UniProtKB/TrEMBL annotation:
The lineage of its organism: Eukaryota, Fungi, Dikarya, Ascomycota, Pezizomycotina. Keywords: Signal. GO terms for cellular component: fungal-type vacuole. Residues 1-17 form the signal peptide. Residues 98-455 form the Peptidase A1 domain. This is Peptidase A1 domain-containing protein. The active site is at 114, 349.
Length: 471
């Protein structure tokens, strides 16, 4: 999200419906993925300890920042044919936003947690809300922010002169404003003099709760520019600064990792642990795999977003509920079922509801393995399944260990009477491990070692075979 893509040049004609009832955003950019450089000074694996710095997350139904890029990339590949007006189905495509509490200058807010950008930003009092349709002025309430930040009410705010904030998103939303310093407290960790953005001009369709966003990207992808006039900003001229979590582990003694545990309960989003693990049940034994940093580039080649990407050994699925699988490529046991789509790179993204994978080798065969089999709908571009179908055994193998998806997460309700498979075609060669999979694992983002680490979670909270989409 934090981008070198200039906000005021992004195109005011791009329109998107309100996030409370999301529609597929209109996209006029061509996006490509690129491999980013890794650090030459990786640290050893960070020692895992339970931490008290744990944040309870809430969930909001909205176009998550990451899902706009995922769906734009899928649309280019011809896999997305979602039609406006089908709100429930589009909600599945939209993903979720996860909100966390933060205190800034003694004022309390809810902010979106975004793993693909770096900036911390907040909407300010008396900001200008702008229409995405025609650029006209709107009432502040139309942007649907939560409580705005008031710098005049803070004794710790310090402005930064000769800098401005300028950011755009894949769905055409954009924000501009000033840069400043303020005291931040999140998850019990205080960071004094944190640089952040004060948004005073916004083309935005919010969730009605969040006042801004905090980025947790694996590297610095900030959107501060020199000067005070956003119309003069140019791509590639951003000013680098330490984002919030970087300051936590470089200046506040926090271990350089964060852990995400998503809950399938729609009223309880999950937890985000800073510097350690949350105190929740999980199976012993972590699988570790290198983070492969992947960037999203716009037509001009500028980097606008990042994804945490890993190498997947393969995918395990079978109609046999007692199936065993070969996870060792050096020895194949003929009595076990082989993995498919070996050595696939996959994006790990909590902002995407579904698991997207290759249609021929994974999504299609998985849909066919439901009892009764799933049915492809060419109009909407999804596999529908019976809401009371028996799903196949399904798992993702990482570093020699299979992490299975609970059957409760394999069927998502898209309307009062219809359900879809949790595994859908990707398009454009993308493989996305979204919430369908992430609800079943403890995800550790070890930024110091540039590794991702996973542990299986217990099969928790089963009150029904299938859950409502977007939960």
């Amino acid at each position: 999200m934090a981008t070198t893509y200039i906000a005021l040049l992004a195109g005011l004609s791009l329109a998107t419906a309100r996030r409370a009832q999301p529609y597929f955003p209109n996209i006029n950019e061509e996006y490509t993925l690129s491999r980013l450089a890794v650090s030459d000074h990786k640290q050893p694996l960070t020692k895992l300890k339970v931490t008290d710095n744990v944040i309870k997350l809430t969930r909001a139904n909205a176009w998550s920042p990451s899902s706009t890029y995922v769906q734009a990339l899928r649309r280019q590949g011809g896999a997305v044919r979602v039609k406006n007006g089908t709100v429930n189905l589009i909600s599945v495509e939209a993903g979720s936003v996860f909100l966390a509490p933060v205190t800034v200058g003694g004022q309390d807010f809810k902010v979106v947690i975004d793993s693909g950008s770096s900036d911390p930003w907040l909407a300010t009092i008396n900001f200008d809300c702008i229409s995405l349709y025609d650029g006209s002025d709107l009432d502040e309430s139309e942007c649907e922010f939560g409580t705005p930040y008031n710098s005049s009410a803070s004794s710790t705010y310090r402005p930064i002169t000769d800098q401005n904030f300028n950011i755009s998103y894949a769905d055409g939303e954009f924000l501009t404003g000033d840069m400043g310093y303020e005291n931040f407290t999140m998850g019990g960790i205080s960071v004094p003099h944190q640089e952040f953005a004060l948004v005073d001009y916004a083309a935005w369709t919010g969730d009605g709760y969040s006042s801004g966003l905090i980025g947790f990207a694996s590297r610095t992808l900030t959107s501060a520019y020199p000067g005070n006039d956003p119309t003069q900003d140019r791509g590639g001229q951003t000013l680098m600064y330490n984002p919030l979590f970087v300051n936590m582990y470089t200046n506040q003694g926090v271990a350089p990792l964060f852990t995400l545990a998503i809950n399938r309960d729609p009223d309880y989003g999950g937890v985000l642990a800073l510097g350690g693990l949350p105190d929740i049940p999980y199976s012993p034994g972590f699988a570790s795999t290198p983070i492969i940093p992947v960037g999203v580039n716009i037509t001009s080649g500028l980097l606008v977003y990042e994804f945490y990407t890993i190498n997947v050994d393969g995918f395990a699925f079978s109609t046999n509920q007692n199936a065993q699988f070969n996870v060792n490529n050096t020895y194949v046991n003929p009595r076990k079922t082989s993995l498919v789509a070996n050595n696939t790179q996959a994006i790990v993204d909590s902002g995407t509801s579904l698991l997207y994978a290759d249609n021929d080798t994974i999504a299609g065969p998985v849909a066919a393995a439901f009892n009764p089999p799933g049915i492809w709908d060419d109009y909407y571009g999804v596999f529908y399944v019976s809401c009371d179908a028996i799903p196949p055994v399904f798992g993702v193998a990482v570093s020699g260990k299979i992490f299975y998806v609970n059957g409760a997460d394999m069927i998502l309700q898209s309307s009062e009477t219809e359900c879809i498979s949790g595994v859908q075609p990707s398009g454009s060669g993308l493989t996305i491990l979204g919430d369908v999979w992430m609800k079943n694992v403890l995800c550790v983002f070890d930024l110091g070692a540039e590794m991702m680490r996973f542990a299986a979670r217990e099969f928790y909270g089963l009150t029904a075979q299938n859950k409502v989409a977007n939960t």
